[in-house]
Amino acid sequence: MIKWITNNTGLFLIASLTLGLAPFIPEPHLWGKLRWVAGGAKGMQIMDYFDLVMHGFPWLLLLLSIGLRIRSTSKID
After folding, report:
1. Under-50 pLDDT residues of the chain
2. Which residue from 8, 15, 10, 9 is spatially nearest to 30, judged by alpha carbons?
3. Considering its fold, how many domains does the chain have in total?
């Protein structure tokens, strides 16, 4: 599983930049949801939280993949 995550960094990058930010106009969707949560999340419903998780998941996979790559290259045998 870890090898699969580290081997698909490019896929996660593309998913983050497309699905993670769509729709782009007037602002990236994920950015709007994060600002809403940071502002107290007043009026957010279950669907809004689900939407936040769905748009944020590619970013989490990308960060995990990059972190695992850094960790595997910096290991001292």
Report:
1. none
2. 15
3. 1
